[in-house]
Amino acid sequence: MNFSEIRRKLGFLLSNDREFRRQLKELLGTFPGDLHYYRCAFTHRSAAGSKKTGHNERLEYLGDAMLGAIVADYLYEKYPLHEEGKLTKMRSKLVNRVTLLNVGKKMKLDRFLVAQVNIGLEGKFVLSNMVEALVGAVYLDLGYKYARHFVVNILLKDLLNSDIENLEYDFKSKILEWGQKQKQEISFVSQQNVDKESIPVFFSDILIDGIIAGSGTGYTKKESEQNAAKDVWTKRENPENKVYVN
Questions:
Q1: Per residue in 47-91, pLDDT tens?
Q2: Which of 64, 205, 223, 231 is catalytic?
Q3: In whole angstroms, what is the distance from residue 169 CA to residue 73 CA?
């Protein structure tokens, strides 16, 4: 254990924020140093006025860049025969908003969120932004070497050990492609409304040959259509629900 690790451990033992430090240690896999970075990473801009920590948008910017660089470096080393185009596609599957949203849910980052309004976690991708901000915080607090370890061995470990090339999130494209092959007409019907906080929200139905096969919601029309397509694709992959798509 080096001096920095000893200092962080002493900070944990002597701190008045032992519970927060304990949760961060569990999340990060090591003792955190400066808690300011993490408080900032978990603070939404709606709460910035009442918090001395500021909010997480600058850390989100930094973490986005660090995350992309770390994943690019990892893929470059792991797949020495892959060309640039394939590596780029693989990286985009690992660092897009949907992937990071799911990672944030799995890590239960919403327990740390500081906000003063109901910001709609799923539609606004607050958790994916928090994941990026967290990477930025780890980098500033613990350095690049540990930030890389955190991303590769904790944050994206399961995804990096999976079949990255076959990860799929663009369900709309998959459904449209399926419709062309099966000579079935695919269309979307969307309408806009507002949620309880007066934030615009979209509702979309996906029709196959004029029959409603799935539905989805989102804070953009594109997001609601993707969720509707995902609804149908999930039914397709479940043998008990193969009603519209074979």
A1: 876 556 688 999 999 999 999 999 999 999 999 999 999 899 899
A2: 64
A3: 23
pTM of the model: 0.70
Query: Does 34-166 carry CATH code 1.20.120.1810?
Result: no
User: Does residue 132 have an active-site annotation?
Assistant: yes
Return the residue matching tokens 């989102």.
Answer: 218
What is the domain partition of the chain in residue ranges?
34-166, 171-241
> For residue 188, which of 176, 170, 200 has the smallest C-alpha distance?
176
Catalytic residue among 57, 60, 132, 177: 132
Residue keyed to tokens 């919601």:
217
pLDDT (tens digit per residue) in 18-51: 899 999 999 999 999 999 999 999 998 888 765 5
Residue 220 and residue 122 in contact, taking contact as beta carbons nearer than 8 Å = no
User: Could you tell me which CATH class the domain 171-241 is placed in?
Assistant: alpha beta
Angle at 159 between CA 115 and CA 8, to 5 degrees: 55
B/e letters for 149-174, b = 16+ CB within 10 Å, e = fewer, are bbbbeebbeebbeeebeeeebebbeb
Q: Which of 55-64, 129-138, 165-174 has the lowest mean pLDDT?
A: 165-174
CA distance 50 to 88: 40
Catalytic: 170? Answer: no
